[in-house]
Amino acid sequence: MADIFHRVSVRNYQDKPVEQDKIEKLLRAAMAAPSATNQQPWEFYVVTDRATIDAMADSSPYSACMKKAPLSIVTCYRTNCNLPEFAEIDLAIATENLWLMADELGLGAVWLGTAPLPDRMEDIGRILNLPSDVKAFAVMSIGYPEGERPQQDRYDQSRVHYI
Q1: Confidence category of residue 119, pLDDT binned at 50, 70, 90
Q2: How buried is 4 (Cβ within 10 angstroms: 0-12 exposed, 13-18 middle, 19+ buried)?
Q3: Looking at residue 154, what is its pLDDT?
Q4: Are 71 and 52 in contact (CB under 8 A)?
Q5: What percent of the chain has pLDDT over 70?
Q6: pLDDT of the residue at 121
Q7: What mean pLDDT do residues 8-18 have?
Q8: What is the gyration radius of the CA atoms in the chain, in angstroms?
Q9: DSSP per residue over the chain, as a string?
Q10: Cis peptide leading into 145, omega within 30 of 0?
Q11: Which one, of 72, 79, 12, lies nearest residue 46 by Cα?
Q12: What is the pLDDT of residues 50-75, one digit of tens each?
């Protein structure tokens, strides 16, 4: 069972590829997510090509860590789904599932924001040559972490309101 109190953002990776069976487990976890009207608007682009990962890393000032990652999974959504206004919510849940599974498998990952920023979405779409009805949602940089660090305790009682 994935431990949400262990998952952290990992930006430094060992020089070691991620095994295919672990990639499939990541994708299965992502696709286990609930979605509005069970529309499952997701598409996943598994990227191991170094030149493509580096191009995506150059598309945002916050994505340099990808240059050390052996794997990126780009979570995308189809715009021609039942409820397109909920597609990004559906993808947020799927992406979080993927991230939790990465931690469960001993991998490290970081969510590199793409949506809702049109320029980043278009850049990733162009790099991956996405069909016009598929939009990039997030880029997950994934690999075996270099070192370990504890998760911060972010619980703040002052943000809890009982009515």
Answers
A1: very high
A2: exposed
A3: 84
A4: no
A5: 99
A6: 96
A7: 90
A8: 16
A9: ---TTT--B---B-S-PPPHHHHHHHHHHHHTS--GGG---EEEEEE--HHHHHHHHTTSTT-GGGGG-SEEEEEEEESSSS-GGGHHHHHHHHHHHHHHHHHHTT-EEEEEEBTB-HHHHHHHHHHHT--TTEEEEEEEEEE-BSS--PPP----GGG----
A10: no
A11: 72
A12: 999 999 999 988 999 999 999 999 99
44 backbone dihedrals φ, ψ, rounded to 5°: -125, 130
Integer Cα distance of 1 and 74 in angstroms: 24
In this prediction, residue 142 carries a pLDDT of 96
Residues 75-97 as b/e (b if ≥16 CB within 10 A, e otherwise) read bbbbeebeebebbeebbbebbbb
> Are 99 and 92 in contact, with CB atoms under 8 Å apart?
no
The alpha carbon of residue 25 and the mean position of all alpha carbons in its chain are separated, in whole angstroms, by: 14
Instruction: Output the six-digit token pair for 10.
Output: 């990992």
Q: State if pTM tops 0.85.
A: yes
